Every structure is written in structure tokens, then in C-alpha cells.
Amino acid sequence: MKTYEGVNVRNVAVVGHGHAGKTSLVSAMLYTSGATQRQGRVDDGSATTDYDEEEVARKMSIATSLAHVEWGNTKINFLDTPGFNMFVHEAKMVLPVVDAAVVVVDGVAGVEVVTQRVWNYCEEYQTPRVVVASRMDRERADAERVLTSLQSAFGRNVIPLELPIGSEKNLRGVVDLVRMKAYTYELGGNGKGTEGPIPEAMQEVAQAAHEKLVEMIAEGDDALMEEFFDKGTIPEEDLIPALHNAIREDKIFPVLFSSGLGNIGADRLMDFIVDFTPNATEHEAIRGEAASGGEAPQRKESDSEPASVYVFKTVSDPFAGRISYFKVFSGVVKNDATLQNFSKNSAEKFAHISVMQGKTAVPVNELHAGDIGAVAKLKDTLTGDTLGDKNAPIQYPHVKLAEPAITFAIEPKSRADEDKLGPGIHKLMEEDGMLRFYRDPQTNEFLIACAGQQHIEVVVAKMKKRYHTEVNLKAPKVPYRETIRGRADVQGRHKKQTGGHGQYGDCKIKMEPLARGGEFEFVNDIFGGAIPKNYIPAIEKGIKDAAARGYLAGYPVVDFKVVLYDGSYHDVDSNDMSFQMAGRIAFRKAMESAKPTLLEPVMAVEITVPDEFAGSIMGDLNSRRGRIQGMDNKGGNTIVKAEVPMAEMLTYGVDLTAMTQGRGSFNMDMNHYDIVPAQLQEKIVEKYKASRGEVTDDVA
Ligand SMILES: Nc1nc2c(ncn2[C@@H]2O[C@H](COP(=O)(O)OP(=O)(O)OP(=O)(O)O)[C@@H](O)[C@H]2O)c(=O)[nH]1
Ligand SMILES: [Mg+2]
To answer: Cβ distance 441 to 549 under 8 Å?
Structure first.
């Protein structure tokens, strides 16, 4: 494979709502450029960038895949990202390494929930965007309606650079509104457009659209504006660089039209990417994170700077092992290079570097600043790490993802599965930034947190197929807590004098509630040595231990203060154990009168649904004891913010999908703890008692 310098590289993320046609469009470009012999299809499992077993089985993208084309003198790296809401964080994770995003929308549906999500991500990373309305050959595809939906969501700077010729199954090609030429195709053909004049019937509309475009490009550029008013147009040689700049600066979001499956307009899109999107070295300098107290180091995307690479993705292949996908931010990386991992402080050997074509690694000798590649078998390197020239350390910022939305308890089916569970999941976690795995210290269950129902299904399927491990899933236990609402003043005395050595400890404590988040406070208020100093920590430990075991229903007691103010001891019989006991007894006695109550975790939830579902979503939140915090409208979507108890949200991902036919998405984060309503408390306490028998004073 030829070596490309950064000026001749374009890194493009293909993003958008699920099923908009991203993977098919990439397949069309691969085929048209000659990178593949046939045009791959999602529906028969032959698409280059949907190769994973689970992707083929589900006919959808689950993780980002890489592919590249050589188009003229330029190499375009495509990062085909999933559009299903549960996997869309994969799109966010690649934005730091791309120079532009192709935002694919469906020619029938226009802007959808995830379109808005990925658009927001692009805003966050200031990624230049080109919108492609694909699947234009479908019944009811409508260019005008798509444009209206785009402009109402993203503003008037979304402007067509093409108009489709023909519609639905009679789609024949596109008019290029910059060069004012037509390109016609055979639906399902080789993808090479035939250049010709604009069809007679379209000339007027095309001219009007051309003028609108030119005016928009000239806007904000005085010299161009003058030229435009003078001559009524701008010559092509001025128009092209001006458009290039306007796109780079996010002043214009151009719209193109295509059919991925029918291979119409894919060649135009590649031309467009080469001509108008920024090349890989055009960025301003890229900032690293400042070391503590220091200035943030920065690098130009240039071969002459010290080498630095950022690992944006890890694939855990059961056969090839770990494969790290990286972007060369500066310098040149050659085969056999040793780079320092600044995040892990270890040296890593890049023995065989390659570029990915779907699942296939194509070996290369070197990669220049701006390019993207892959390397297998790094020892310590994980996603988010920066490596480079040992003498020029830098750390590029991590991508922050929302916390997983849903948690399940996960149980191995058999003893054999138990041993494989942890290692398998840890492998999956290497390639999946949205997965969490831990043991709940309260309930002792293994918990797995992820983005939603489909996500966990994929995880379970991969565990079975890749690691031959079978698991059961259960709804997790909600991590309730306990606290007090009243005060108490009690004595805790532990005394045993049966034969030999006796035991004696005695303390008097006051207990009072603290504000939420106050955890536990212990104050020693003993004067005059009623209890010797060295026994005080034992009393505190006794209280803490008892609090951790809970009083009402086995959940830890939090947000309370204990003041130890008096007590007594015995010269011979007192010891640490006895005072720990005294502390426990005092705690349990105090709880009796301090009005104990249960606390539940409350989540901050943000739900995005098409407007038509807003009413039913709000009603549903009410029935889940939710409190609406705010509402917003954006591009046909309603965004609802609410606080809802976690106990009511355990299966929300599934429920929302059912309520909105898969068109809703949501994020949630742990927010605060709140008191559980009385009737519910009774139920929880009853259930607890039924499962364990009455709470006893395990002191005797
Ligand atoms: N008629 C028509 N169907 C298309 C076109 N492009 C894609 N499809 C079909 O639409 C479905 C979804 O296409 P994909 O390419 O998988 O869409 P995607 O955006 O990659 O989907 P995700 O990766 O799951 O978000 C598949 O069944 C495709 O065959 C097109 O241009 N015309
Ligand atoms: Mg896809």
C-alpha cells in the first residue's frame, strides 16, 4: 500500500441515526473506488464495515469500523459508526481523530433523535459536517422535506450543494450546484456518474439554488460579497476555496443526496470530501492535557514534530488478541518503532503496523502525521492512551462518556462459567467504553452496567460465542440506604462475667441526623476519663460496623452523627472487643428511637423523543414517581429532564423502546438519595424480613 502524507489524507466519521444508510454508503464508496470487487450489503452480511458476528446477525452496526479508499491522490479513512442510540457513544469516541463528519440522514425520515445527538457531539468537537441524505431511492423519499427538517433542526446554514434528479425508484443522479453540472447514474450500477448538462426542466430551480448557495458562501467575506453584488456570481476558482473555508469553520453545512444501496452519488461524495473537507494537517495545533500545574503541551499535525499517537479504539479479537486503533497526531510512525505509553509509563513495540479495511489488516511501512492505523499485541495500551517519542511526553484528552444507563446482576450458569466470567468481561470492557463490571459490596452480586437492553444482549451473546461462558441476568438490587430523622440519647452496655476473664464496656451516646451526603460523623465528648482514650476507637468501630449492616432492611445507615459523652469501664474486664460490643448495642438502641427511614437513589434522567410522544412520556414518568425538571424542543424532538427513583428505572431502556417504537433515547446519572415513601418502605422492609427472618440483635 502506498504511503500518504497528511495533506493527502482525509479522516471522516460517518455518523447518524440508526438505519439511515451509513454502512451501505461506505460500501458504495469502497466499491466505486475499486477498494472492493463487489458492493457489500448489510442485508446479506457482506458489508466491509459490518463484519462482526453480532453485526451480521442483527444487520446493524454495533461498533465503529474502519475502511479506506484511494481516490485520486488522496486516501480517505472512513470511520463507520453505529447509529442505534445504545451504541452511539462509539461515534463520539472517534470525533477527536477525524477532520470531518458525514452526517447521514434517511431521505424519508430526515432528522431523527440520534441525528440530533451526533450533531451535538460534532458541535462539542467543532467537527466540520457534510450532510448526506441517503436512501433517496426509497418510496416517499423527499429532498425538500429533508431539507426543511434539517434547517429547522440545525439552522439556515444547512444548504444544498446538490439537487437530486428524479425521485424514488426513478432517482437518476444529482445536479452539482457549485459547478452547475449534472451527473447521472444507473441505479445499482458501477457508481461512476456521467457528467452532462443540467436537465432542461431543472435549470430554473438549479440556478436559484446556485445563487442562494453563492450568497451564503460570500456572507461574512467582504471581498467576495462585493464581487457577488458586482457580477451577480463568483467564479468557480474563488468559490471553491471560499466554500472549503466556510465548511472548515462550521459556517456552512452542505447537503448532498445519494442512494448507498443503488450506488448513486457515492463518487460525488468522495470528490466532495477531497475538495472541501479539511485535510489531516489543516488543524490548529492539538492540545494535550496539562501536567499538574504546568502549561498544556501542544503539537502540530506535522511529520517534523516528535511522534505522538492517540489510541481511540481497541478491538479484542479472540484469535489475533488485542488490536489498537490509533491516530498519528504528530511525527511519523514506522514499523518496529518503540513508543512510550505516557498514560501507563511503559514502552510498547509497534511491530507490524497496518491500516484496516473492515476486519482485514493491510500492512504498511509507515504512517504519517494525520493518518490512522492499527497495531496488534500492545501489552498495556488501552483506549484513551497516548504514546509517543519518549523525550516529548504529551497526553491527549480522553473522551467523556455518559455513565451506563442500566445495571443488571449477572450470574454464571455453572461453576465452569464462573471462572471465565471475569476474564471474559474484562476483555469485552477493553473494547467497549460503556461497559462496567463490579461486585456490589452491599449485596455481593456481580453487577454489569451498560447502555441498555440491546447492549446487554450483545454482551451476553459475545460472552457465549467468544468466551464460551453462559450467564443469567437478573434485575439488580437497588442500593437503598438507611438513615434517621430523629434524635436519640441512649446507653449501650456490654457485660459478661461468666467464669475466667469477664467482658465489660459501657458508653452513652447521642445520635442526630446529618444533611444528605453527610455520611457519618463521630465526636468524642468524654471529659475526665470516664472511658480511657484507647477504647474510644473501638466504640466508633462498633457503631460503624453496626451501621454498615443496617437496621431496617440490611442497607447501610448513613447521614448521622454520634456524640459519645459518657460511659464507664472496668480495670480488668474492659478490652477493645467489649467496647466494640457496647458501641453496637448503643447504635441499635439509638436506632429504635431515632425514627429510622429508608433512602433510595434518585436518577437525573434526560429523555429525547419525537414531539408526538412527549405527552405519553410525561404521563409515564408520573407513574414512575418522576419529577419533571424541565422541557425543551429541538428540531421536532422534545427533551424532558426529570428526576426519577432508580427503582422505577431498572428497565427503562426496554420500556422506552416499546413506547416510542425505538425512536426515543435517554441518558441517566445517579443524582441524589431521597426518603422512600412510607408505603413503599413497609414493603421493602417486609420483603427483607421475609428473606432473612427478623432482624436480631446479634449480640448475645
Ligand atoms: N432503498 C434503499 N435502502 C437502503 C439504502 N441504503 C441502505 N439501505 C437499507 O437500509 C438498511 C440500513 O442500512 P445500513 O447501511 O445498515 O444503515 P446504517 O446507517 O449503517 O445503520 P446502523 O449502522 O445500524 O446505524 C439496510 O437494510 C439497507 O439495505 C439506499 O440507498 N436505498
Ligand atoms: Mg451501519
So the answer is: no
Predicted local distance difference test score (pLDDT) of residue 246:
93
Distance CA 26, CA 653 (A): 29
Residue nearest (by alpha carbon) to ligand 1 atom 24: 60
Q: Give phi and psi for 698, each to the nearest 5.
A: -35, 50
| Pocket test residue of 15, 24, 171 for ligand 1, highest count of atoms within 8 A of CB | 24
3-class DSSP string for 60-103: CCCCCEEEEEEECCEEEEEEECCCCHHHCHHHHHHHHHCCEEEE
> DSSP letters of 229-258?
HHHSS--HHHHHHHHHHHHHTTS-EEEEE-
The closest ligand to the CA of 40 turns out to be 1
Instruction: Confirm if 336 and 351 have CB atoms less than 8 A apart.
Output: yes
Q: Which residues pair with 407 in a beta bridge?
A: 449
Question: Ligand 2 centre from 16 Cα, in Å?
Answer: 9
Looking at residue 695, its pLDDT comes to: 46
* Total residues found in the chain within this entry: 700
CB 336 less than 6 A from any atom of ligand 1? no
State the residue for C-alpha cell 451476553. 460
C-alpha cell at 46: 457482506
Assess whether the C-beta atom of 135 lies below 6 angstroms from ligand 1. Answer: yes
Q: Could you report the per-residue pLDDT of 274-295, keeping only the tens digit for each?
A: 999 999 888 777 888 866 556 7
Contact, 584 vs 545, CB < 8 A? yes
E-assigned strand segments in 272-371: 286-287, 298-299, 308-317, 321-330, 333-334, 337-341, 346-350, 353-357, 360-363, 366-367
Nearest CA to 69 out of 34, 97, 23 is that of 34
Q: What pLDDT score was predicted for residue 293?
A: 59
**Residue 439: what pLDDT?**
83
- Extract the residue ranges of the chain whose pLDDT is less than 50: 695-700
Q: CB neighbours of 563 closer than 8 A, spacing ≥ 6?
A: 509, 510, 511, 512, 523, 525
Q: Within 13 Å of residue 548, how many CA atoms lie on the same side as its CB?
A: 9
Q: Per the structure block, which three cell numbers stand in for 365?
A: 511501512
Q: What is the pLDDT of residue 290?
A: 66
Q: What is this structure's pTM?
A: 0.78
User: In 219-342, which residue ranges form alpha helices assigned H by DSSP?
Assistant: 222-231, 236-248, 266-276
